[in-house]
Amino acid sequence: MSPVLPPLAVRYLTVDEESVGQRLDNFLFRTLKGVPKTHLYRIIRSGEVRRNKGRVGADDRLALGDVLRIPPLRVSERAQEKVANPAPAREFPVIYEDEFFLAVDKPAGVAVHGGSGVSFGVIEQMRQARPQARFLELVHRLDRETSGLLLIAKKKSALKVLQEQFRERETGKTYLALVKGAWPARLKVLDQPLHKYLLPDGERRVRITTKDDPDGMHAVTLVKVAAKVAAPSGLPVGMADGFTQLEVTIKTGRTHQIRVHLAGAGHAIVGDDKYGDFDLNKHLSKLGFRRMFLHAWRLRLSHPVTGNPIELHSELPSDLQGWMAWRQ
Asked: Is 66 labeled as catalytic in the residue annotation?
C-alpha cells in the first residue's frame, strides 16, 4: 500500500494480515502521512471513509480483506516533499534476525525516526533499503546520541508482543555509561520520579522531581560499577579526577532516564550535551572525544513467538573503546 495518497485522488486500500485488528483511526494515521488528524476524524465521521461500501467508525477494528475507500485528500507540502525526496537507503549492522524481528546496531548521531528537525532516521532508511519488506516498525526508541541495540519488528504480531514486554518490564535493558568522578559502589538503586518540561525554545528536557508531584513519572535505575577509568592526559588539574564505567539497567523506560538519574547523583555522563558537565565536555572535545558515552549494550527478552529467552549484545563501538585504554 502506498504510504501517502496523491492529492485529489480516490484510493482503495485492502487490509492485509499485518493490519488485522488495528483500529481504523490508527491505521489511517500510519497510512495517510501528512494528513492532519483532525481532518481524518472529520472524514470518518462524515462517512467519506467507507469499509466494504458501508460506514465505519474511528474505533472499529479492521479485518483481513476489508476494502477501505479513501476520499480525495490533499497532503501537506512536507509530506509530498518526503515522497519526492525519500530517505537514502541504508542497512545497519544486524545483530540478530529472523522472520519476526531483527536487532540492529545503531550508531551514535543517527535518530531512530524522522521528526523534530530530523528528516529521517533508522526506520525510514531501513524501509528504503528493504523495499520488499511489507512491515518494519520500531519496537522501542534510543536517543539520537546513544548507540547500540535497537529492535525492529517485521510483523505486526511480533511488534505487539515485544512492545508488551517493554511495557510490562519483562525485558532487561542494560547500558554501558562512562561518568565523571568515582561512583560510590554502595549507590546501586536510583528511585526518583522524573518530570518532563520544555525550554523556552520548545526543546524537551527532564528533571528529577518529588514523590508528590502529580506529573512525576516513576523511574527506577539500577547501577553497577564495571571499572574505574583514569583521566586522559591533557585535562586541567581540577578535571583529572578520573571516571567510572557503569553497567546501568533501567526498570522503567522514561525519556532521558539514565542521563538525568546519573547527573542528579552528581556523576554526569561524559559527553552529554543536555545534562552533562559542559566545561569537561569542552575540554574532552579538544582531545578528540566528541560524543556521549552511553551505549545500549545488552538486551534480554523472550522471543515473541516461541517464548524462548534471548540475550543480545552490542559491543562498544571503536570510538568508545579508546576510553578503556585508561582503565585502572
From this structure: no
